[in-house]
Amino acid sequence: MSVMSSVMRGTRRLVHADPALFSNFPFPAVFCRAGNHVLEALLNTSVHLDSLEKDTVLEERWIKEVVTRSGMKFRWAKLSASRERPNRDACRRPPADPTLLVPRPPVVTIMGHVDHGKTTLLDSLRKSQIVSTEAGGITQHIGAFLVQLPTGEKITFLDTPGHAAFSSMRARGANATDIVVLVVAADDGVMNQTVESIEHARRAKVPVIVAVNKCDKPHADPQRVKQELLAHDVVCEEFGGDVQAIHISALKGDNLLALAEATVALAEVLELKAEPTGPVEGLVIESRTDKGKGPVTTSIVQRGTLKRGCVLVAGKSWAKVRFLFDENGCAVREAGPSTAVEVVGWKELPSAGETILEVESEVSDVDGSVEAILNILDSYDGQQQCELEVVHFGIGDISENDVNMAEMFGGSIYGFNVAASRGIEQLAARKGIPLRLHSVIYKLVDQLKEELSAKLPPLVSENITGESAPHGHVTTAELRWSGGVSVRSKSAFHPC
């Protein structure tokens, strides 16, 4: 009776226990389907049912005993521990020591309504002919140019599109600038995109200089333009505000020096400075694919000095700088703060507006692809059947070192969105190293699964389907491969 009482108490305790109790057992399905067997197994052991509590965890030997006596087979699963990897995300440096800062040229954005003379103004400032090369006379991209005045001061100008279709690009231009020059035609006045430009500058907290253009036109009325601007909280100096307004004619080049001097004076008030040393920080102004140069960006350096050979990251893209070109297409050796340069060497195009950061080497995980693939490999749970070991991972094209390492460990090389030169392919073929390159990640994973399946050990099972007369018997054997391939064989045995 005492034994039965103990069993009943234990049964009630297990049945009415908190559900968390069952989560502690490695065999919850067994508990649901074979509860009586579990109790019987525990009853015939030295485990005291009265001692079981909500947080009780059975010893390994009793778990094996219960599972075996319940008619089940146990198998210990190896829990894959999460791999701790250092954070390789590139990030901005802390603010520089004020003693290390030096004056830098202002970055000025030309904004305004379409056909109000923005590109013509830049043509006059840098003595070039951009309008003649643009489709329909409308600027189709953001350009960046360094202009040096006769007095020696330098100004970096950003030419943003005025067409309404490029509103978002204008927003990026405003956020990359120190000063906005708002061009308004004296014969046309404040228009829709003029108001949009004012809003972009206001959101970016950038001061504005008004360039009242086309003052040479017969119906020009600069005073009306400045009065219309009052309705948008742009108050010029003659109305008691702090916004400089310069009357110019971009086509004839009238009063452009006064506009440049006003820009330099405002830059002096802003006390623009930057640190010319240390890792580079900058901004992508535009990106495109050049037929001869490949992926190219027009970029503004904001901190540090950009040089050939630097390794840069921008969003999900990275580059090892091969060439730097100025606004005239001439190769330059370096570019300091506020300098606009064309950067060649990107592996893929970054988006305009992305932040550029310099890193020490090419093995910072810039695009997240390596991390994503490693996370997939971490989920592999067949180590007991076929061990999977990642001996090396990195970023960039397949190298000779990769082939040598694969040969040393008897492994395969998998590449995602990278290339292998003809010499590397021939080297891998000579050494018998599988080289598997993919541009779609799920295809890479599928091929890896196929390779692992092919290396799994065979599972052999033999079933006797019948016996012949006493003089001999026939046996049918079935050989099954865990990879999914099935081979059947049949043999006959006869007495001597």
UniProtKB/TrEMBL annotation:
KW GTP-binding (keyword) present:
yes
Outline the extent of the Tr-type G domain: 103-273
Task: Name any one Pfam family assigned in the record.
Answer: IF-2
Query: GO: which molecular function terms?
Result: GTP binding; GTPase activity; translation initiation factor activity
A GO cellular component annotation here is: cytoplasm
Give the top-rank taxon of the lineage listed in the UniProt record for this protein.
Eukaryota
Sorted alphabetically, which CDD domains does this protein's record hold? IF2_eIF5B, IF2_mtIF2_II
Task: Reply yes or no: does the keyword Iron apply.
Answer: no
- Keywords, alphabetical: GTP-binding, Initiation factor, Nucleotide-binding, Protein biosynthesis
InterPro entries on file: EF-G-like_DII, IF2_II, P-loop_NTPase, Small_GTP-bd, T_Tr_GTP-bd_dom, TIF_IF2, TIF_IF2_dom3, TIF_IF2_dom3_sf
Q: What does the function comment of this entry state? A: One of the essential components for the initiation of protein synthesis. Protects formylmethionyl-tRNA from spontaneous hydrolysis and promotes its binding to the 30S ribosomal subunits. Also involved in the hydrolysis of GTP during the formation of the 70S ribosomal complex.
Q: Which family does it belong to?
A: Belongs to the TRAFAC class translation factor GTPase superfamily. Classic translation factor GTPase family. IF-2 subfamily.
Entries under NCBIfam families matching the protein: small_GTP
**Protein name, as recorded:** Mitochondrial translational initiation factor 2
